[in-house]
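dumping this here before i forget
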Amino acid sequence: MPDVALIPPPLSPTQSRPRLAITLGDPAGIGPEVVLKALANLRSQLPSSPALAPEITLVGDRRLWQRAYQTLKPKTAVPLADPETWPLLDVPVTHPEQIQVGQESAASGAASFAALVAASQAAQAGQFDAVVTAPIAKSAWKAAGHLYPGQTELLAEVAGVTRFGMLFAARSPHTGWQLRTLLATTHIPLAQVCQTLTPDLMSQKLDLLLDCLQRDFGLARPQIAIAGLNPHSGEQGQLGREEQDWLIPWLNQQRQRCPQVTLTGPVPPDTLWVAPGQAWFQPGATAHDAYLALYHDQGLIPVKLLAFDRAVNTTIGLPFVRTSPDHGTAFDIAGQGIADATSFSEALTLAAALVGQRQAES
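structure:
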């Protein structure tokens, strides 16, 4: 596994160690593996400075955590953390024997759902500062009778918020530049995007993004690029009317409403990602502090192209921090000991950093 700097900056006198809950994810997938690899890497970097480490609690059925450890230990040369050596919030499931590695099922969906509910409720109650979630399978949740589009929506329900967003962050290993991309719409069919996008929705997402950049990243005067919807951003109405009819007027209103923010756009989608690509690979290249993409693939194709093994999904708008790796359950390689834990390590790093930033601002 590539070396990842998991050690957070030294704490100020007013800060305490971030309290992170790590969920099991789908136990039939690679979630337990990437968690245990990331924790072993974290522990190896802090042999003489445990006071700098976040306080981490595993959440999920103890038997499933231990089974994953015992199964994977002889299959990988990469160190694994023994779950018995970490604090653990046990969330027992009824039939753990029904869960087979590499095979999603109602039983595995029930286990991942129960762990997330327990972690998010505890965070909402103030027991944790952040929840770092291992990947789940939406189809397994559905098989278990839990009809949520994903973890984000369940977290928002537990937290009692209706305005939330999916922000993807990634730190370049080449330059240190940080890519931040918010999606205006998420898991909906492409045919519904034009009907779903409205000035009100865009204002909600922009407000969430501004609050996140200021509160979580310490950017008081951020520069934000906003994507166009159509090719060439509509080319003055020749390739689509959305930009002319409402997106450009909305953007002009936001510039007046938020004079402390630099808002660029609507930027043609095919050129929006040129500057981020340069900033990712070329030291000294500059780009915007954040990007607001209008639909799922418009934002995530470039994110995954640049940072597939490093991108982190963070839910903004929650009262507590939530991060997760930007990959799925990978049932096809589960239990083989070959999963790459870099993205999960980055999720831990970002969660601790965001908690620290919030503490410093409070």
